[in-house]
Amino acid sequence: MKVKSLLLLLALSFVVTSCGGFKAQRVSADESDELAMEITDKWVAKDTEITVKKTLEQISKHKGFQRYLAKLGRQPKVFISEIQNVTSNPYFPIGDFNDELLTEFSSSGDFVLIDADAREKLLKEIQYQNDGMVDPAQIKNIGKQAGADLLIFGAVRMQPQTRDGKTIKEYSVNIRMTDLEKGIEVLRTRAKVNKFSEKNSTGW
């Protein structure tokens, strides 16, 4: 009987210990990046921040783009057409990358952003206003939306190299701006991130 009681007590102790073994805590962005590097060699949020920052720095220093701005004489209106994920990872966070890029373009104050995603909804609202449901003095008319000067295209690529359990993933973020009216490429940038990992017999 005592043996059974002891075994039951040990079993309950194991269950309680197992249930109480998980703990979560908030960490800084830098700490999160360091922890992520311990468990994955995939693209993480810090990689997005690094490459977007590098891209904006390259744009600000691009001599050809500076000549374009001087000739234009005002803030360029830009339309981010498509940044494609052409890596082998279908789950690459390309949506987060696009959001971060838009955020940094906006916060720089150097560009006027054309809201591509909202165009259809804007058109529906303007049509509604012109159907007689809105005060004529407050109606917005079709044909007055801003037109983009520049279209932004891009792609994220990744080239892996593996040998003897060691892997290096070479990511590159390639961005280009094209003059919409003339079809001339105004600038091209490339930002890189290299990620090394080593796998042993027991895992990462």
Structure, described:
Helices cover 42% and strands 26% of the residues. The protein is built from 6 helices and 5 strands. A hairpin with a 5-residue loop joins strand 4 (166-179) and strand 5 (185-198). Helix 3 crosses helix 5. The protein starts with a helix and ends in a 6-residue tail after the last strand. The mean pLDDT is 85.
Residue runs with pLDDT of under 50 for 5 or more positions:
none
Sheet/helix structural class: alpha/beta
**What characterizes the major β-sheet?**
5 strands, mixed
Which band does the percent of strand residues land in? Answer: 25-35%
The CATH class assignment is Alpha Beta
Count of DSSP H/I helices:
6
Globally, the shape reads: flat
**Whole-number mean pLDDT:** 85
Number of domains: 1
List the secondary-structure elements in sequence, H or E. Answer: HHHHEHEHEEE
Based on the coordinates given, report the CATH architecture: 3-Layer(aba) Sandwich
Number of strands: 5
Kindly report the CATH topology.
Answer: Rossmann fold
| Major sheet strand order | 2-1-3-4-5
Write the layout of secondary structure elements.
Elements: H1 2-19, H2 29-39, H3 45-61, H4 63-72, E1 77-85, H5 94-108, E2 112-113, H6 119-133, E3 150-163, E4 166-179, E5 185-198
Parallel strand pairs: 1-2, 1-3
Antiparallel strand pairs: 3-4, 4-5
Helix pairs in contact: 3-5
Short précis:
This protein has helices at residues 2-19, 29-39, 45-61, 63-72, 94-108, 119-133; strands at residues 77-85, 112-113, 150-163, 166-179, 185-198. By secondary structure, it is an alpha/beta fold.
